[in-house]
Amino acid sequence: MLVGLTYDLRDTYISQGFSEEETAEFDKMDTVDALDEALCASGYETVRIGNIKNLTSFLQSGGRCDIVFNIAEGVYGMGREAQVPALLDAYRIPYTFSETHILALTLHKGFTKAVLRQAGVPTADFITLDSPQDISKVNLPYPLFVKPAGGGTSMGIDGESLAADQAGLERTAAALMQRFSQPVLVETFLPGREFTVGIVGTGRDARAVGTAEITFTTAVDNGVYSYTSKQHYAELVHYALADAKAAAACEAVALQAWRILNCRDAGRVDLRMDFRGKPFFLEVNPLAGLNPVDSDLPIICRMLGIPYQHLIQEIMVSARKRLNLTVND
Question: What is the signed CA dihedral for 295, 176, 132, 188, rounded to 10 degrees?
Fold first, then answer.
């Protein structure tokens, strides 16, 4: 089985003048190398394709593969994560992870929370702001958490994201709109413990691999899990497997959200507890990072003694099962 690899390589965009933060979601070559190695060790043949422009050239020149292992994040627009899958759909080439409409929906945190709240998933009260004029519509108790509606890797999140009053809200929301040119999500701040749940599988076959609790080794950015803390997680952030009670509560909410959204193959759901210890959905990442050292899902697997190659195998098993593909296809 020939597996194409699609990805956005961070160094490519930095060489084009993009900043470190603008490329934070993109992959380094060691991620692509590790993924390629894991697939080959599992008996697959691979072809490295790269970003959507490379994929376009590959397809137009007649290139084909049996399935694409897609980790391309995209560059522009609120539908950027859906662009590679949409192109693959047009050429009827199957791929790992979620479909185009799911990737487009889940990139917008406000839309995702609205869908899940309607379905009964616990999520903090929120409002999405599309312009600075919308700030006057906010009628939620302080403190509030403010972040870009379509950001990833905690881009745009820092100590100022926790707004204690109206002035803080106005300052942070306006600055984020100007900086990122996208809507801003404002939600009631949850003061409890923070978790991330790793998930493998699709639909009824989806299962929680494990749950990590996220704590800080030092007070950074007002105690916020920020862009800076994620970039320097080894020094500033501590991951530990959650206790059984907390893990069970978080995994129940995470799997409920995963299945309602019809996310596929593997990813993560982030949650935070209120002051009573009840977990609330924060956001879902259906295109989770797969760096074997630095990414949360592989970190969870590593803490549980699950080899990286096994994780990649499980993702491929999930994709092949729902696509009815055998290794000999």
Answer: 50
Structural fold of domain 194-323 = D-amino Acid Aminotransferase; Chain A, domain 1 (3.30.470)
Instruction: Count Cβ atoms within 10 A of the Cβ of residue 277 and give its class: 0-12 exposed, 13-18 middle, 19 or more buried.
Output: exposed
Helices within 181-295 (DSSP H only): 227-231, 233-236, 244-261
In tens, the pLDDT along 109-162 reads 999 999 999 999 999 999 999 999 999 999 999 999 999 999 876 777 888 899
Distance CA 198, CA 268 (A): 5
User: Is the dihedral angle over the CA atoms 129, 148, 50, 199 positive or is it negative?
Assistant: negative
C-beta separation of 295 from 28 below 8 A: no
- Sequence-distant (6+) residues with CB within 8 A of 305 are none
- Domain 2-106 coded CATH 3.40.50.20: yes
